[in-house]
Task: inverse folding
């Protein structure tokens, strides 16, 4: 039996599926329904991947073709299953095509920002999370070990990771092109993860505007603020700070932030980098503010000619690794490491 028999990827991405649909599919945390999906016969193994660009389910199944989609949707909680059935732009990759897709995703070839810096860690974390939830076995272990190994090699050859290719950087550049709102008032950044860091790093090279940072993790927010000479706002106080800033940028995950404040001031620009989006309540309260989300950023992220050679080099590396996976054997799960970084 081939190592690729039975593996599949079911997903949607920014190319064909609107952000609002991706939000619904990402709104239910994967580690909560992975055991449910396996128990109800949707797949024998499952890994759930959700990023700014995509929502994907990797798994192993005895079914083939459209029957995989039906099995997965039927085995989910009803509302989520219906959302998958009705989503526009759903794709299905099986066998070696599943491996190829995962390797290209982890390399950054299918990202909104080609070669983005966060994706490799996001794929690795998705595998680890599903493994901890009891969703993985021999097939997913082999798939993700091989795919991530190939992606690391391809990124190195292509030069991805040298500099900051990321959604955060793209957002910072877009904000600067827009004029950035009133320069005399601060920018409030919500979040302290990888996207927040890449945004701050890029934006500090473009603007001297006062920068305020707030995050659910006070420790990480404090570290980020100290590194980039910003002011830290306690998480409980960020809503009151909105009245005093000209831009609010959210690099958070987890869905809409509650909003009940009233203000006569407020931001000129709202930039939401989350999936699901987090600032929609603010948008309703400040309808005159310019709204930028991931769909707007996608329109600004055309592939530059100088990126094409790097893409071709990465693809050559992936082709070599693909042939190795196609004829290889599944590594042992017992005693193995979580996918290496």
Result:
């Amino acid at each position: 039996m081939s190592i690729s028999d039975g593996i599949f990827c079911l997903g949607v991405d920014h190319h064909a599926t609107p952000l609002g649909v991706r939000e619904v599919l990402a709104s239910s945390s994967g580690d909560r329904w992975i055991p449910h999906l396996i128990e109800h016969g949707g797949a024998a193994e499952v890994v759930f991947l959700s990023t700014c660009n995509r929502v994907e389910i990797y798994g192993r199944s005895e079914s083939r073709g459209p029957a995989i989609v039906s099995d997965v949707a039927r085995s989910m909680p009803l509302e989520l299953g219906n959302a998958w059935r009705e989503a526009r732009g759903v794709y299905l990759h099986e066998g070696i095509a599943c491996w190829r897709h995962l390797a290209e995703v982890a390399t950054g070839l299918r990202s909104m920002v080609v070669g983005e810096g966060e994706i490799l860690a996001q794929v690795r974390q998705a595998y680890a999370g599903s493994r901890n939830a009891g969703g993985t076995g021999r097939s997913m272990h082999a798939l993700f070990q091989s795919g991530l190994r190939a992606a690391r090699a391809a990124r190195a050859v292509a030069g991805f990771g040298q500099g900051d290719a990321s959604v955060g950087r793209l957002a910072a550049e877009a904000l600067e092109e827009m004029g950035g709102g009133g320069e005399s008032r601060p920018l409030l950044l919500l979040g302290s993860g990888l996207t927040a860091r890449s945004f701050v790093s890029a934006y500090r090279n473009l603007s001297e505007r006062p920068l305020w940072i707030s995050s659910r993790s006070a420790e990480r927010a404090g570290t980020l603020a100290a590194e980039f000479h910003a002011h830290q706002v306690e998480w409980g106080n960020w809503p009151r700070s909105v009245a005093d800033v000209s831009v609010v940028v959210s690099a958070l995950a987890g869905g809409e932030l509650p909003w009940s404040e009233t203000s006569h001031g407020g931001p000129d620009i709202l930039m939401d980098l989350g999936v699901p989006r987090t600032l929609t309540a603010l948008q309703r309260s400040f309808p005159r503010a310019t709204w930028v989300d991931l769909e707007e950023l996608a329109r600004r992220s055309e592939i530059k000619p100088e990126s094409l050679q790097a893409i071709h080099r990465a693809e050559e590396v992936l082709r070599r690794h693909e042939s190795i996976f196609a004829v290889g054997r599944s590594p042992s799960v017992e005693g193995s490491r979580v996918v290496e970084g």
Observations:
- The radius of gyration is 21 Å.
- Residues 43 and 259 are 39 Å apart (CA to CA).
- The chain is about 45% helix and 15% strand.
- The longest strand covers residues 7-13.
